[in-house]
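The protein record reproduced below.
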Amino acid sequence: MIRPSPLRTRTTGQSEAAIEDRFAKLTAQFDLLRAQVRQAQQLATLGTAAAMLAHEVNNLLTPIRAYADYAIKTDDVELMKKALSVTSRNVQILIGMTGRVLEIGAAKPQRRETVAVRKVVDDALASLCRDLSKDGIDVAIEVDENLTASVDPLQLQQVLFNLLLNAREAMASTHGGRLSIRGERRDDRVCLEIRNTGEPIPPELLPHLFEPFQSSKSSNREGRQRCGGLGLALCRDLIEENAGAISVSSRPDQGTAFTISLPTNTG
């Protein structure tokens, strides 16, 4: 019987240990890079909303300044109180708007819990910091207030925020349209559909839409080069991390619909 050489056994063991150590280091580096890419994706989404936010902030600041100037010039106490009331209300709205937008870009550990889906939908709409009716968009929400899902509420809000921004852009060329958000329970899953009547997505792009840097948008819109596809890739990653799935369909006669499926419990 031929016995293995002690030296060879020792060398083989050392090689395996070195490989395992190298693999562990590469895995740690990959996890770090993935976290950094995730944060970059979230911040890229904020850039899309920046112009909208600036417009709404200006709309709120204009009456604040007008009332403040008027209050300075008048001796009417009641008018002063009204001016201060409007100022205080608009400032609170501004604080809420900026707080919600900052949350969208926040890097926080996942915390899945049972949440009311309708509340997350409302929060996502509020995060747009703009009434979509100003863009000629009719919004219809059919989500029961008692419908719940097991999900990280902030991550679901981030996903919906991205989808709502995309829907708004899709309907920009037609100067309006209809955005419908429907939610229902199917067995042990919650299905949420976000549908818009904007420009359809070309059929050849649909199978690749959730791939990084793939986008249905023009690569050059309003004279600016866009980093396309990061938002939808992020949506897919966040939904899958919550044990869910996301799909898309798009037809000229039916519009574009994103469907999200989520578990109803943490089990």
Remarks:
- The first strand starts at residue 113 and ends at 116.
